[in-house]
Amino acid sequence: MNTRAPAVEARQLTKTYPGDVTALDGMDITVAPGIVFGLLGPNGAGKSTTVKILTTLARPDSGTATVAGHDVLRDPRRVRRAIGVVAQQSGADPVATGRENLQLQGRLYGLSGAALNRRVDELLERFTLADAARRPVKGYSGGMRRRLDVALGLVHRPEVLFLDEPTTGLDPEARTAMWEEIGRLAGEEGLTILLTTHYLEEADRLAERIAIVDRGRIVVEGTPDALKGELRGDAVHMELGEPVGEAGRTRLTDALTALPAVHEALCEGRRISVRVDDGAAAVPALLAALDRAGASVASATVARPSLDDVYLRHAGRRYAEVQAGPEAVLAGGVR
Ligand SMILES: Nc1ncnc2c1ncn2[C@@H]1O[C@H](COP(=O)(O)OP(=O)(O)OP(=O)(O)O)[C@@H](O)[C@H]1O
Question: In the UniProt record, does the keyword Metal-binding occur (predicted)?
Answer without folding.
Answer: no
